[in-house]
């Protein structure tokens, strides 16, 4: 029934594997990309743990009894502890920068009285909220662990820690761990949207050019009485529209999926992001949209340039896949890790990749950091202008019809193997 199937399948596999573009784009690149991604994630988490081990705690002590002194001394054995002379929590928050503190504790006036009488003494701990990465609540977890150890040494549950967060310089009575979890779930959607938009649109743009080269219709298009830059912009605009519709459809289903999981797993009250000021303003949305559009435009122009060196659609898609690591790795890393906890050199690498700028801008506008978003836009505009110039020059000449990318070493080896066969 399937006579000759095995020989035909073997022939097809040999043709696919011998194509250097497919070999590099679909086999070698993923083998490199995922180990690099794992190494970056592991290094980021390890760096965050080392930074958490150096947690600095600023204490606002409103109690004059001996138990608060004992409690502060106990914390000082494991953390760098400083006691502020402020009298109000709002006055103590600005002093955190002076002491380079990441945590703030407020000991109430009746602390020693409650501890001496065996009553529960409440101490509120505030953590600085800086973006909602997976390492956001490491500092508060360390403090909770130390409070638990102190309770076991003195009396069970004598100190009841209450968690709070410092958001944009203001203390808020919200659990930083719950806030971080919510922000991570919210932050997953945008990187995935950007990833889908970029990959879909690049494939569409590359296929559009390569298909016309393969079917020999590009010569006819270039002879039309219209400016060639208009042809380039028409191809880019069409790719943006089609990719946008596909991404919206995908995100509708993905958001429903995430919402159903959140409804099943949620056990406590959800923090109100709007009341906490963690919702982008109209200006923030404008900056974010601008960053996304310019980044998408540069990716499409880059795809058009690469597809110009392809002989057919399959080769064009393989060439475009070389860029995917520059899209996937920043998206997946920034999806869970706060860029502020990364080492300087790793931050520089992520900022240098233009496709990471919309994700960085999305987190920056939430915290009101419009300068970071604006500088990212300026950088991507410069990158896009260079790419658009190269693409326009390519369309302005006949090289768009004759350009080919050949990997000589692989081709040579292929020819040798074919002769031997």
Quick overview of this protein structure:
With 421 residues, this protein is an alpha/beta fold. The chain folds into 2 domains: 51-173, abc type-2 transporter like fold (3-Layer(aba) Sandwich); 182-420, no CATH class.
Topology of helices and strands:
Layout: H1 5-18, H2 20-52, E1 56-61, H3 66-76, E2 80-83, H4 89-92, H5 96-99, E3 103-107, H6 111-116, E4 121-128, H7 138-154, E5 159-167, E6 170-172, H8 176-214, H9 218-222, H10 228-265, H11 282-307, H12 313-320, H13 324-336, H14 344-352, H15 357-366, H16 370-396, H17 399-402, H18 408-420
Helix pairs in contact: 2-12, 2-13, 8-10, 8-11, 8-12, 8-13, 8-15, 11-15, 11-16, 15-16
Number of domains: 2
Instruction: Specify the number of helices.
Output: 18
In which order are the strands of the major sheet placed? 2-1-3-4-5-6
Alpha-beta classification: alpha/beta
Instruction: Give the CA-based shape.
Output: elongated
Q: Overall mean pLDDT score?
A: 76
Number of beta-strand segments: 6
Biggest sheet features? 6 strands, mixed
Q: Ranges with pLDDT <50 over ≥5 residues? A: 407-421
What percent of residues are in strands? Answer: 5-15%
Q: What is the string of SSEs from the N terminus onward? A: HHEHEHHEHEHEEHHHHHHHHHHH
User: How much helix is in the residues?
Assistant: 55-70%
What's the gyration radius in Å?
28 Å
Terminal Cα separation, in Å? Answer: 28 Å
């Amino acid at each position: 029934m399937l006579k000759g199937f095995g020989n035909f399948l073997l022939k097809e596999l040999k043709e696919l594997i011998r194509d250097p573009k497919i070999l590099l784009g679909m086999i070698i690149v993923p083998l490199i990309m995922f180990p690099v991604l794992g190494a970056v994630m592991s290094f980021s988490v390890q760096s965050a743990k080392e930074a958490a081990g150096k947690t600095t705690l600023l204490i606002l002590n409103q109690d004059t009894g001996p138990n608060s002194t004992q409690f502060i001394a106990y914390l000082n054995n494991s953390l760098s502890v400083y006691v502020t002379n402020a009298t109000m929590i709002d006055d103590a928050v600005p002093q955190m920068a002076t002491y380079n503190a990441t945590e703030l504790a407020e000991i109430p006036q009746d602390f020693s009285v409650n501890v001496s009488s065996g009553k529960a003494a409440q101490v509120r701990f505030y953590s600085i909220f800086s973006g909602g990465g997976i390492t956001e609540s490491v500092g508060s977890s360390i403090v909770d662990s130390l409070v638990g150890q102190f309770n076991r040494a003195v009396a069970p549950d004598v100190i009841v820690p209450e968690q709070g967060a410092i958001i944009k310089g203001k203390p808020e009575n919200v659990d930083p761990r719950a806030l971080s979890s919510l922000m991570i779930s919210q932050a997953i959607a945008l990187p995935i949207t950007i990833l889908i938009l970029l990959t879909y649109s690049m494939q569409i743009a590359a296929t559009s050019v390569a298909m016309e080269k393969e079917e020999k219709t590009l010569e006819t298009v270039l002879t039309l009485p219209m400016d060639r830059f208009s042809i380039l912009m028409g191809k880019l605009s069409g790719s943006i529209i089609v990719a946008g519709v596909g991404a919206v459809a995908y995100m509708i289903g993905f958001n429903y999926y995430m919402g159903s999981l959140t409804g099943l797993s949620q056990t406590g009250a959800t923090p109100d992001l709007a009341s906490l000021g963690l919702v982008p303003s109209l200006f923030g949305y404008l900056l974010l949209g601008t960053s996304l559009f310019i980044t998408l435009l540069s990716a499409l122009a880059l795809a058009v340039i690469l597809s110009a060196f392809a002989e057919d659609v399959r080769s064009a898609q393989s060439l475009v896949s070389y860029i995917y690591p520059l899209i996937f790795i920043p998206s997946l890393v920034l999806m869970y890790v706060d860029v502020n906890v990364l080492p300087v050199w790793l931050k520089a690498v992520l900022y240098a990749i233009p496709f990471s700028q919309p994700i960085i801008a999305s987190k920056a506008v939430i915290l009101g950091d419009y300068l970071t978003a604006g500088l990212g836009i300026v950088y991507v505009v410069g990158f896009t202008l260079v790419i658009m110039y190269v693409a326009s020059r390519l369309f302005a000449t006949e090289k768009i019809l004759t350009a080919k990318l050949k990997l000589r070493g692989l081709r040579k080896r292929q020819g040798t193997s074919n002769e031997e066969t």
